[in-house]
Amino acid sequence: MIMIKEKHRATSVALALAIAALVSAGAGVAQTAKVNSVISEQVKTEEAAKASQKKVEALDEEATKMLSDYRQMLAETTSLKSYNEQLAAQVKSQEEQIAEMTGQLTTIETTSKEVLPMMDKMLATLDQFVKLDVPFLLEERTNRVAQLKEMMTRADVSTSEKYRRIVEAYQIEMEYGRTIEAYQGKVGEKTVDFLRSGRLSLMYQTLDGKETGYWDAGEKTWKVDKEYQDAMHAGLKVAKKQAAPDFIRVAVSAPKEIS
């Protein structure tokens, strides 16, 4: 009886030990599973942290780029504002110039209306003067007047240029009055040397020196006068700069009394 109890007790202890061992083993498995679970969660947390860090870095880069773009746009806006202000100033200046030029054009149109009739009158006076004057360089002077008349009808020549050309023609005519000149031309069919002394005298001599004469302003005709043959010869030398300047004898028409 005692042996049975002892055996039963040993069995109970063994069973208890087995149960304890099983319990201990079960506790180790549970602990390992818990540790693994914790490690897994830690890994997930770290991975989530890495992903979050990447997102933060991406957002930071995007924010940096947006800040750079903003600053660039701000600089461009400032530049455009400055450019627009400059353009506005230029436009204002151009508008003022246009207004000034418009006023000048109005003045020019008014002046042209007054100047053109005056120039026509100046040209008509010059034409009449050449026709009534001593007939020296007649073809040249007549052609000059004809060219001026043709110029007055041209729209491609400015009013100022027309006026300048007419004044220039007047200056040329004035210069004739204080110079001496020798040139060749014709009296009738004869080729002659002319000697012009201002507008005071116009004399001629044939190339062979056999005929000498002068223009009679009173009678508007040529007159032969051998009395001036030597004077004419000497005067031609002075005019052609073949002799030193000297007093020369010229034929001058006597003034007529006006009744």
Strand order of the largest sheet: 1-2-3-4-5
Global morphology: rod-shaped
The chain-level mean pLDDT equals: 82
Rg, Å, rounded: 61 Å
Uncertain parts: 1-5
What fraction of the residues are assigned to beta strands by DSSP? 5-15%
Helical fraction equals 55-70%
Q: Please report the total strand number as a whole number.
A: 5
Number of helices: 4
Largest sheet: 5 strands, antiparallel
Rounded to the nearest angstrom, the distance between the terminal CA atoms is 202 Å
Structural class: alpha+beta
SSE sequence, one letter per element: HHHEEEEEH
Topology:
Blueprint: H1 2-132, H2 138-152, H3 159-176, E1 180-187, E2 190-197, E3 201-206, E4 212-216, E5 221-224, H4 229-239
Antiparallel strand pairs: 1-2, 2-3, 3-4, 4-5
Distinctive features:
259 residues, alpha+beta, 68% helix
Quick overview:
The chain is an alpha+beta fold. It has four helices and five strands.
Characterise the protein shown here.
With 259 residues, this protein is α+β, with helices and mostly antiparallel strands. The longest helix has 131 residues. Strands 1-2-3-4-5 form a five-stranded antiparallel beta sheet, with helices on one face. It is built from four helices and five strands; from the N terminus they run αααβββββα. Among the domains are: 79 residues; 73 residues, no CATH class.
